[in-house]
Design goal:
Blueprint lengths: L6 H7 L4 E3 L1 H13 L15 H5 L16 E3 L6 E3 L14 H7 L4 H8 L3 H16 L22
Antiparallel strand pairs: 1-3, 2-3
Helix pairs in contact: 5-6
Length: 156
């Protein structure tokens, strides 16, 4: 496929996500410390609820938020995946998955662009997610069990 169909141009613009293991990050930190680089830990207040962040500044700079689109952290391995290795966080058009979800339905192409993934990968994730939802047993409420579900609510 050539440049004229637009697919070639899109592939050149989009860089694949980069995953860094916990070990790799530790090694890089030790190297930086050996070079004399000092890491300053800044304590700051960040929003605790969706309501607090909903009208906050955009792009959102709180990349440690689990709804931020800039990076993903694997809770099992501790590895960090940079979804946009060629951009800084303030260069992203969209930074919050909740902002995108509140706008309502969008196409697979739009989701792919927002998440730096291909349309096909988004379709695969959608199929897998729907299969998991359909597998909820009827005695547990089936799909109805998810109506009104709030992912931010913490049950005591």
């Amino acid at each position: 496929m050539g440049e004229s169909d637009g697919l070639g141009a899109d592939k050149k613009r989009r860089r694949r996500a980069r995953t860094m293991s916990r070990k790799e990050m530790s090694r890089e930190r030790r190297r930086a410390l050996a070079r004399g680089e000092v890491f300053e830990v800044v304590d700051y207040e960040r929003p605790r609820t969706r309501e607090e962040c909903r009208h906050g500044p955009r792009p959102c700079l709180y990349v440690s938020c689990r709804h931020h689109l800039y990076l993903d952290v694997n809770p099992v391995t501790g590895s960090v995946k940079l979804n946009f290795p060629d951009k800084e966080v303030w260069e992203l058009e969209e930074t919050c998955a909740l902002d995108v979800a509140e706008r309502g339905g969008i196409t697979l192409e739009e989701v792919g662009s927002i998440m730096n993934l291909t349309r096909e990968r988004i379709r695969q994730v959608e199929v897998n997610g729907l299969a998991k939802l359909r597998s909820v047993p009827e005695e547990d409420g089936g799909l109805v069990a998810f109506e009104g579900w709030d992912p931010d609510r913490r049950d005591p």
